[in-house]
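Input chain follows. Return structure tokens only.
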Amino acid sequence: MPAESKSKFKTWAYAIFIWVFLCVWLTGMTAGLMASSCRNDRYEGAKKLRFCNISLATGAWMNFSSLERAKGSRIELERGIALSQIGEPEKAIEAFEQALRDARAKSGPWERELHKRMIQIADGRALALWVSVVKSGE
């Protein structure tokens, strides 16, 4: 293989590596920033839902392991809260069920943290929906 050909191959390899790295890094950063906003009680309803949906969509590639799904259960829970706030109880129940499934995917504090979060919330509708999901899942 001539030296010029090796140099072109090396340049292309570096370029591909950099592009892949930037794509992974950018989606991870976006998912993290949106998750932070999703978990923030300063946002409610449609705005909170938007942050949660973006976080879940950009972080979907990380859900390959049960640990990552368990960690992400909080975002799904917050999505359920937001759906409840905008008057979408059926979708909120689906989100709560998904959060519970994800939290139970890996042993650890995940499910307990979801219960703690729901105890803190001042929204009676969301809490009632959560209780119904937990009771039906037992």
